[in-house]
Automatic annotation (TrEMBL):
Gene source species: Pyxidicoccus fallax
InterPro entries membership: FAD-bd, FAD/NAD-bd_sf, PheA/TfdB_FAD_monoxygenase
Domain of life: Bacteria
One Pfam entry name: FAD_binding_3
Lineage per the UniProt record: Bacteria, Pseudomonadati, Myxococcota, Myxococcia, Myxococcales
Protein name: NAD(P)-binding protein
Residues in FAD-binding domain copies: 6-339
The keyword Oxidoreductase appears for this protein: yes
A GO MF label: oxidoreductase activity
Alphabetically ordered keywords of this record: Oxidoreductase
Length: 409
């Protein structure tokens, strides 16, 4: 069977991990990415152990390590206040922090070895074009010029708040969102020894949460979240210093104090939890944040987006090899396989969003009680991390993927 021409909207983790699985298995893919390169807004970097293992088996993780684009063996720790470490249900997870631009660029490099792959940077998808109810093309804009991209199948991976949901006739369910997060990034290459060795989440009560995370290239990410206008807080440096600095570990504080100025890289992230009730329409499938926007709570969004692509590639490539149609029944099977994990984690994120609004004293009591319950329940309590199997059967090991050309059928 002739491989269909797949158009992927969005070259983020969902788009590029899917592109690699399809392209390395012979499917022609065109990716449309609105930014001029992968150094775009900063996004999640903590890969959970299950995704790291899949990348290890495919040879991707060792390439990331060799290039200095990943920090292995990073634990996510939770604190109530500055010093009290608390446990949440589930096994202790050690993952890896991976530079998102680095990962995306590596996947692009690997895909580019195949003649049936194309990525158009600087190309914004404006709308879906439907004929007889089926998406047959998308309207694009590149360098101010409007055009269209045709294809046999469209996979929308363009992240949170995807406007294509509406133009494809999909309905969005929104869940509660509490506070926004001010994300700051510091270059600590002059003091790498003070960088944390884990990703630490500190809950200070009444919605104040501060996260510290090491990042490849001796960077430090700090996320400061509390109810209120964080755009205004970012511009009021004395006030930001007053609120942020006391929450920092002593070793980090003087360095952040020195570097926190109007040049500090920053981004305000609207914390959202939502999902579309149906992930598909004729000719189009939504994956990753475009299908279900995640809050940063629990470091889940990146991992869920990647696991979506493992399941999607399994179904799409199985169907192609068996000569079965890529129709809505197939898309629904992809959604059905992914939905339970998404629902469970979004419910957990919504609960966590409510929990952090409690005063500090209440958080102490809650975590003391949780500790007792966890001890009594032993290993039976399930964690918030992704535990559902999403084994990627088409994440081609590099030695094979590099030499495969259009060969599906
Ligand atoms: C600051 C921050 C920190 C986070 N921390 C974590 C974490 O530690 N762990 C974790 O698991 N998750 C984390 N998340 C969430 C995680 O980053 C996202 O869930 C994940 O990136 C989703 O991947 P995606 O490919 O679905 O979407 P995205 O990463 O958003 O990628 C979408 C891509 O589509 C492109 N695009 C958008 N619109 C268009 C258009 N109209 N036309 C063409 N291209 C378009 C965008 O430029 C982008 O490249 C964090 C998110 C943020 C913002």
């Amino acid at each position: 069977m002739k491989a269909p021409h797949v158009v992927i909207v969005g070259g983020g983790p969902a788009g590029m991990v899917l592109a690699w699985q399809l392209v390395s298995n012979g499917v022609p893919v065109r990716v449309l990415e609105r930014h001029p390169d992968f150094t775009r807004e900063f996004r999640g970097e903590l890969l959970q152990a299950s995704v790291v293992e899949a990348f290890e088996r495919a040879g991707l993780f060792s390439m990331l390590l060799e290039r200095g684009l990943a920090l292995p063996d990073i634990e996510r720790r939770m604190f109530v206040g500055k010093h009290r470490v608390v446990r949440v249900p589930g096994p202790r997870e050690r993952g890896a922090v991976v530079s998102q631009p680095g990962l995306l660029a590596l996947l692009h490099e690997l895909c580019s070895r195949h003649p049936h792959y194309q990525l158009d940077f600087g190309t914004t998808v404006l709308d879906a074009i439907r004929e007889d109810g089926r998406v047959v093309a998308v309207k694009t804009r590149c360098n101010g010029v409007e055009g269209r991209a045709d294809g046999d199948l469209f996979i929308v991976c363009n992240g949170r708040n995807s406007h294509l949901r509406k133009s494809c006739g999909l309905e969005t369910q929104e869940f509660e969102s509490t506070a926004d997060a001010l994300w700051l990034r510091f270059d600590l290459s002059d003091a790498p020894q003070v960088l944390p060795e884990s990703l630490d989440v500190h809950m200070f009560g009444k919605g104040l949460v501060v996260v510290f995370q090491p990042s490849p290239g001796h960077r430090l990410h700090v996320a400061y979240s509390e109810p209120g206008d964080l755009n205004r807080l970012r511009k009021d440096l004395p006030e930001l210093r007053k609120r942020l600095l006391p929450t920092l570990p002593e070793a980090l504080r003087p360095h952040v104090e020195r570097k926190l100025d109007e040049h500090t890289e920053w981004q305000v992230l609207k914390i959202l939890v939502d999902r579309v009730s149906r992930w598909h329409a004729p000719g189009v499938l939504f994956l990753g944040d475009a299908a279900h926007t995640m809050s940063p709570s629990g470091g889940q969004g990146l991992n869920l987006a990647i696991r979506d692509t493992f399941v999607a590639a399994n179904h799409l490539l199985d169907a192609l090899r068996a000569g079965r149609p890529l129709d809505e029944a197939l898309f629904q099977r992809i959604q059905d396989e992914r939905q339970p994990e998404i629902d469970r984690i979004q419910a957990g994120q919504t609960r966590a969003g409510q929990m952090v609004l409690k005063p500090l004293g209440v958080l102490h009591v809650m975590f003391t009680l949780l500790g007792v319950v966890m001890k009594l329940a032993g290993k039976k309590m399930e964690g918030a991390g992704g535990v559902l199997p999403a084994e990627p059967r088409y994440l081609t090991p590099l030695s094979r993927g590099a030499s495969t050309t259009a060969a599906t059928g």
